[in-house]
Amino acid sequence: MAFKLNKTIYRIIIIVTFVGVNAFILSGIGSAWVFLNTGADRTSMLHLEVPMDEVYRPSIEWTDLENPGRPIEEQTLGEITSDYFNAWHVRNIAFKKNDYYGIEDFYTDSARVRLYDNIDLNLKNNNWYKRTTLSHKGAIDFYSTDGTMVVFKDYNVEEYQETYVGEELILAEKDTTSYHVMMLLEDGFWRIRHLQEIENNIDTTKIADRDIAAKIEKINELKGINYYPKDSPWDTFGKRFNDTIIAQDFTIIKKMGLNSIRIFVQYEDFGKSMVDYKKIAALKKVLDIAEQQHLDVLITLFDFYGDYDVSNWTLTHRHAEAIVNAVKDHPALLGWDLKNEPDLDFESRGRLRVLGWLEQMIANIKKWDRNHPVTIGWSSPEAAVELADQVDFVSYHYYKEASKFKVAHHKLAKAVPSKPKLLQEYGVSSYKGLWNLYSGANEEGQLHYYEEMQAILYQEKIPFMFWTLYDFEKVPSAVAGSLPWKSKKQHFFGCLDSLGNPKPSFKVLSNLK
Known about the structure:
With 513 residues, this protein is α/β, with parallel strands linked by helices.
């Protein structure tokens, strides 16, 4: 009996094993079939955790594609470009983490040696680097007849690097370097065989002067407002976008005697580096409505963005480039405000890191749009001295007592005498409730604040944009947090209440000289 039982168990084990092995084989064949029919994913095969478009997108311009070998096909050029950028990206990661991981996928055996040596030296000295390249300019020297080797120059590569010892940032620097590059096709992928620095190819072509004098002069005449629709504050271009409501609001603004508005473009809302064409269409619609009312528009970019990390610079550059190029010729556009209150990020992100990002963005936008001025919306007059020599006009915000404003403005004017200075945000909340019983202003207090401020602004001929048109029923927690004693006052900065009725301050803000 025991013998028969053991024999039965053996048979069951054999059958189960047979079924399991065959299931495994069939599963493998199925996976291979899916792989072969969908195409290999380079980001997974080559140790890239996310698609390149989401992590690293420098610009490249191929200026010379003729060569002594065979003509280079458009698809092949795209593959070379993609794998070349992959190589740069992995190299940047390697120097950041001091890790060999991924290098063998993008560099041939001989090309890896120097990278490994550099990493070993960094580990020995406790150094590491955050690096990125911002723009490339390629020219093909040779593409072999068998299609397995390409040689090219990469001229005037804009590179930015932060050097760390331990966790301390000790140096941030920008450089321009040119390279002689050889890449080989191995296992279906282009790998760098040779990357050697060469003399830069300096472009001596004179770039046309920026034609912005008239628009800079216009800054001194601004009487404007920061604008959000009352039912979608901090979300102008979201799901509740309504051009009819915006047109009605712009009519009110024009009747108030104002001549300009400031609007906000949020980085994530507009698609990060892959800008959503529907958002661009909505932005153009807002500009069209402003033009109909003869209102000039100052566009603030990168609202709710606070990263600034060198690794992500190319993504923010592609974002700004897409938006700037899309609307730079619109007649309603007054200028570009790069970032709202970036000095508030100094403590958490590091002052040098924030300023480095801003400096490069200034240079880029001036390159992409040579006809409109550039500014930065600093949170205070004291902060507005930062990068004042690089912007076209100085912008600052003021939310302190009206009685102290003139002294603060004069101090800034003395520090930066040669450029227009725009009071880009100011105002006071009319909230006087449970969470603010013993401080702040009610609607009458708001009126007195504006009476005092407007008198100073007209007397001193200071251009301004006040905050804001409406009281808001809902304010996102990202703006002022969720604590009511901090967030509640953000609901009541308008000169119209949440139903659209004028508050006492509406009259003084409308009686513009």
